[in-house]
Amino acid sequence: MTGWREGDTRVLANAVPPRAIGFWGGLSANVLNMIGIGPFVTIPLALSALAGPAVLLGWIAGAFLCLCDGLVWAELGSTIPESGGPYHYLREAYGRERAGRLFGFLYLWQTLLTAPLSIGSAAVGFAQYAGYLVPSLGEGGRVVVAATLCLLNTAILYRKVGDIQKLSLVVTVAVVAAALWIVLTGIMHFDMATARHFMDAPMASGKGFWLGLGAVSLIAVYDYGGYNNVCMLGGEVKQPRRTIPMAVLVSIPVVAVLYLGLNVSILGVLPWEQAAHSTAVVADMMQAVHGAWGGTLAVVLILVASWGSALVVLLGYSRVPYAAAAAGQFFRAFARLHPRDGFPTVSLLFVGITSALACFLSLERLIGLLMVVQILFQYIAQCFAVVALRRRPRVEGAFHMPLYPLPIAVSVAGWLYLVATSGVPTMLTAFVAIAAGSLLFLWQARRTRTWPFPR
């Protein structure tokens, strides 16, 4: 791995994927990423962390934090519309030949750690719901199903991105329609007595309330995650300075309303104690209303959602090692593009195969760790990256967030609150990961005589 400067002839001029993703393609990539398996398995976890109507406050707080953070992503993605988004944001903001090298490396480091786990988590969720339909699968069978799904998605994505955009749009329509069906079913069969029982549930107070609110907000942010997926594909987006901000900022409120409706629908049909201990809460709700066929159909639709989520997350993350390699900061093989269709080949295969291997681990316990690692490695640094870039001449046509710098202050405070309430073991593990990445960067920098070591 070697350094890179503007105009470096080692980066081939024609090694650039075509810009083929429009607004609807970018919006569907975000929405499909957001409406994955997450809410269908985490609603019971949220109810267990904070009982009573306060749990809805956690979902609202998470949506508000994501909206503020979405303004950060929208400005960065519009200013620097490149594939692999955050890698370029951090390097440009903090100096390509100075601290930006460290931040860019740490982002790549955390991506190599978290990308397979994030993709694998969707696949594991898919396998768990498949086990609801086929109980004889067992633990070993579910692992095989999850790993096979990752490899199948890798094969599906091994083609030009325009074809995937069409597939993403079709699946997004199906997933949103299914979620609306579930919400409408809950509203039509809403039971006031069941809802009143939920509203009367005892709520935590004092420290317990704030810890619970942090836990629910962390779960909500995990479920909302994906509103930034279009930024990962910035180099393949048409009219990116307009398309990226619109795709980010439209997807968040749409999915937030859908999730709140999903929560209210479930809590108006199932007693909250039953929902808190359910392993397939949506299937239980639909079965309570429609019988066995309703539960089965709901599971099938959730399987479609989790498959689509794993697909678009793999698509986004597969561009990150490619972007780093194209900039001369990672192994050159990862910059290889398909000779005819122009998509990253080695990068896609690497992320897809490691995701399949991650399915052999239990990922549910790592949700909090994944979020805290991303917050400490990336999200807070991106907030200050906006401040750094604003000190430079304004890019013509780029999006600038309203009420600056208030959204940044809210984002930083919110991220720090989630980290502080995540638990000491999670924080320590994340800091160890940061330390390991920093030491690896310093070893690499000293070997190549680059910043912070003099040539």
TrEMBL record:
It is found in: Membrane. The chain crosses the membrane at residues 21-47, 53-74, 106-129, 141-158, 167-188, 208-225, 246-272, 292-317, 342-363, 369-389, 401-420, 426-445. The keyword Transmembrane applies. It is a multi-pass membrane protein. Keywords: Membrane, Transmembrane, Transmembrane helix. Its main location: membrane. Pfam families: AA_permease_2. This is Amino acid permease. The lineage of its organism: Bacteria, Pseudomonadati, Pseudomonadota, Gammaproteobacteria, Lysobacterales.
